[in-house]
Specification:
Elements: H1 26-30, E1 46-52, E2 58-64, E3 74-79, H2 80-85, E4 117-118, E5 124-130, H3 133-142, E6 144-149, H4 156-159, E7 175-182, H5 184-192, E8 196-208, E9 216-222, E10 227-232, H6 237-249, E11 256-259, H7 275-287, E12 291-294, H8 297-303, E13 306-318, E14 324-336, H9 343-346, H10 349-355, E15 363-372, H11 386-404, H12 408-415, E16 424-425, E17 431-432, H13 437-447, H14 453-462, E18 466-475, E19 485-490, E20 496-500, H15 509-521, E21 528-531, H16 549-576, E22 583-586, E23 589-592, E24 598-600, H17 601-609, E25 624-627, E26 637-646, E27 653-663, H18 670-690, E28 720-724, H19 742-759, H20 773-787
Parallel strand pairs: 1-12, 10-11, 14-15, 20-21, 27-28
Antiparallel strand pairs: 1-5, 2-4, 2-6, 3-5, 7-15, 8-13, 9-10, 9-12, 13-14, 16-17, 18-26, 19-20, 19-25, 22-23, 23-24, 26-27
């Protein structure tokens, strides 16, 4: 049946679960009608500018703000001493791991503005407020900051040397956390009986997040109620409110309101409290006026959390038949100059959870030292350890295949966890509940025309190009179990509002969540609205991150919808004059069983508002507010296959063919899923080929603008062939598995493996990221010299 010819009573199915509904927010955004933080201007608003350290490491001797007051329009200037006198708390690392020896990890406190030392170029040391943005910047330039420089340590390996400069007295050796997982004796025994051992040193390069919308915020203070308001982009207003209230302001959460409008990308970076937010709230109270700040792109390069940045040695033990016995990962992870809220998680527990991927690997050991350096803070970035862990495993498999002579596809198939083995407890401690990993690989091989690769490689060679094909299977463990809110509110204008604690930074929540509710309650899609960006309207919520949103909010909406139906049975029984047990619900209508007498859910809500159906001791409305029990992790997985061409004369790499097959469980909106996957794949390609973050020996960021830092452009993105083979998750009632970060996990490995495959005939077994033209060209030249 043509969708346009569907009868009206089936219209809501066009917008239900599984339908490719276009994003409802897009028309407004493409017309420039979005409301981002910098679009907001409040009455009496003034402007802040941040004074940042120009040294990577040094002792603060003096900060003289007096010259700033000689500038026109100046209203205030503040330092860390002012914030300390105001009683503000410090920015908090929320991770509570123990060291290998059982002691607590080291968490040096981070005030919003330091008073002792600076620890990276861009470290905020003071801020000024003026009546215009330009005057605020001029005044900030006038502040005199005297810093006695100290030796800086930039490189991870250098940071752990005995003679390295120390960032903190309480973190000897610059080690914040010496993390360990696994049974060393069992791993050693597995390696001892192995027929073959593969060992690869792998660098997971540092990335600048570069969200489309720079960070911005507005702080307000109400002296009468002694309450605070922060406008800022976020990944969840409830989490940001909790951290501001509890850690920084030391007040009850009800005294803090956080408002987030449209957010132009975050990828993990906008999830926590930043020093600038504390500064704005302090100035707002001091001046009695709203204070606004917007980052420029240069300062974003310096002050936004960076991503990735680790070095690991991976070791894989195989028996004589190529079956995996154990994997061991030992590495260093860069924290930058301070611990971020979630910084240690990505390269520790998330490596553990994801490293065994889709394979039967009986034993695993992960050892990570989380290290301080005089660089920008490193925090979560799309996938937050999941792409890295899959990358480590898939690189080890490709190298092992080359070393043993076992076909790379056969080696993978030989070690897949099979559907018949699920549920399966794996070495990470996770229990895989669903999936068909072998089928993902087989279908990806078919979609990529694997058999035709030899001919395509021959054609490339005729043109003087090197062609390689890379396989990247992946499995991600999504966000750990936590609760989520869904409130359903029937409005007077016959619309329905969903209130949820997740938050949209471009994922399309408004569309997907409305589809779930429309599917379950039969409410017309166009009548559903979403509220998720105002902490004063929410009763809870865990925010967006870890590919959790559709699982968490989808589950919460389903459970809340079930409560609406139960309330509706009681209320409809009064209207229809029947017993509640005789009331059925189907396709948006409450019906007396066995008859055609019924009432639509929206009509019932209207009657309830008019007081016509309220019964004593019964529900007073259809409205519900529901907080779920913790929702378990899920395991999205799949296989990506990339082909690259390399110009050996220049080292330039081009991704020329890309295919992927993915298992995201139940897919609410395939159009949104494919879009999410495209975004992740492009970010993966960016990390492998283009994005290089470089510091000099003094800690100056050399790639601090788009003149020096290369992002992938539309012209380098290949056509992406996308297929889906969903195996519904058993861990949530929707059956969803999450998709937001999977593209990075697949692309990082598939493209990196393809590059090495193209160079394999030269004896090259591995190439560190990023594979820039210079690095690839040098590897080719060196290999050819050695061959000669």
């Amino acid at each position: 049946m043509n969708i346009r010819e569907a009868p009206e009573e089936l219209a809501f199915h066009r917008f239900g679960i599984g339908q490719p509904v276009r994003r409802t927010e897009d028309p407004r955004l493409v017309k420039g009608q979005g409301r981002f933080t910098d679009d907001i201007d409040l009455p009496g608003q003034v402007y802040a500018a941040i004074v940042r350290s120009r040294h990577a490491h040094g002792v603060i001797r003096d900060i003289d703000v007096a010259p700033a007051f000689e500038q026109p329009g100046m209203l205030g200037a503040y330092t860390g001493k002012d914030l300390a006198r105001a009683g503000f708390g410090t920015l908090t690392c929320l991770i509570g791991f123990k060291n290998r020896d059982g002691t607590e990890m080291r968490k040096p406190p981070r005030p919003a503005l330091p008073t002792d030392k600076v620890r990276f170029v861009g470290d905020p040391v003071a801020f000024v407020v003026a009546d215009t943005p330009t005057r605020a910047r001029d005044a900030a330039e006038a502040v005199l900051v005297t810093i006695d420089p100290l030796p800086a340590v930039i490189d991870l390996q250098d940071a752990v040397r005995p003679d390295a400069p120390q960032l903190y007295d309480e973190a000897p050796g610059n080690v914040a956390l010496d993390y360990h997982y696994g049974d060393p004796a069992k791993v050693v025994a597995a390696f001892a009986k192995a027929a073959h051992l593969t060992r690869v040193r792998m660098v997971n390069s540092r990335l600048v997040v570069n969200a489309m919308e720079p960070r911005a915020a507005i702080g307000l203070y109400d002296a009468e109620t002694q309450s605070w308001t922060l406008y800022s982009g976020s990944q969840g207003v409830m989490g940001l409110r909790a951290r501001l209230a509890t850690d920084i302001l030391k007040v009850a959460p009800e005294k803090v309101r956080v408002l987030s409008g449209n957010v132009g990308g975050s990828f993990g970076m906008k999830g926590g409290v930043y020093p600038e937010y504390v500064c704005l709230l302090h100035a707002a109270r001091e001046l009695g006026r709203p204070v606004k700040w917007t980052n420029d792109r240069f300062d974003s390069f310096l002050s936004d959390h960076h991503g990735r940045d680790s070095e690991f040695v991976g070791e894989l033990a195989l028996d004589a038949k190529g079956r995996f016995l154990a994997v061991r990962l030992t590495g260093l992870a860069n924290m930058g100059g301070y611990l971020g809220a979630m910084s240690p998680l990505s390269q520790t527990l998330n490596i553990v959870k994801n490293a065994t991927s889709v394979y039967r690997t009986p034993e695993m050991e992960v050892s990570t030292r989380c290290v301080f350096t005089n660089t920008t803070v490193v925090g979560p970035y799309r996938g937050a350890g999941r792409p890295e862990a899959n990358y480590f495993m898939e690189r080890l498999i490709d190298v092992a295949a080359a070393e043993t002579g076992i076909d790379r596809l056969a080696l993978r198939r030989r070690n897949h966890v099979r559907p018949s083995e699920m549920p399966r407890l794996v070495a990470s401690g996770m229990t895989y509940d669903s999936g068909n990993f072998g089928l993902m690989l087989d279908r990806a091989v078919e979609a990529a025309d694997y058999k035709g690769f030899k001919e395509r490689k021959r054609q490339s060679r005729k043109r003087g190009m090197l062609r390689g094909l890379g396989v990247g299977s992946y499995l991600e463990v999504t966000s750990p179990p936590n609760k989520e809110l869904a409130a359903i509110r029937f409005e007077a204008d016959d619309t329905v509002t969903i209130l949820t604690g997740t938050f949209d930074q471009g994922q399309g929540h408004h569309t997907a969540f409305a589809q779930v509710l429309s599917d379950r309650l039969g409410i017309p899609f166009e009548r559903i609205r979403i509220v998720q960006g105002d902490s004063s309207e929410l009763a809870g919520g865990s925010g967006t991150g870890g590919s959790r949103s559709i699982m968490a909010s989808g589950t919460a909406i389903l459970e809340a919808a079930a409560q609406v139906v139960e309330r509706g049975r009681v209320l409809a029984s009064a209207v229809l004059e029947a017993a509640p047990s005789d009331i059925e619900f189907d396709a948006g209508r409450f019906l007396i069983a066995g008859t055609d007498r019924g009432i639509d859910v929206l009509e019932l809500a209207a009657k309830v508002r008019a007081g016509l159906a309220v019964v004593e001791d019964g529900p007073q409305s259809l409205d519900v507010s529901h907080l779920t029990d913790p929702i378990a992790s899920a395991f999205p997985n799949g296989c990506h296959i990339a082909e690259v061409e390399i110009d050996p004369q220049t080292g330039t790499v081009e991704v020329v063919k890309y295919s992927c097959v993915n298992d995201f469980g139940t897919i609410v909106n395939p159009l949104l899923v494919e879009g999410q996957l495209h975004g992740g794949i492009i970010q993966g390609i960016g990390q492998v080929i283009f994005e290089r973050t470089a510091y000099d020996a003094d800690g100056q960021l050399l790639t601090a603008s788009f003149m020096d830092y290369a992002l992938p452009r539309a012209s380098v993105v290949p056509t992406i062939h996308f297929e889906s083979h969903p195996v519904p998750a058993r861990s949530n009632p929707l059956g969803a598995k999450g998709c937001g970060e999977a593209g990075c996990a697949g692309a990082l490995t598939a493209v990196a493996n393809a590059i090495v495959d193209a160079l394999a005939h030269l004896g090259i077994r591995h190439l560190d990221l990023p594979a820039t033209p210079e690095r690839v060209w040098r590897a080719i030249e060196q290999a050819q010299t050695e061959i000669a």
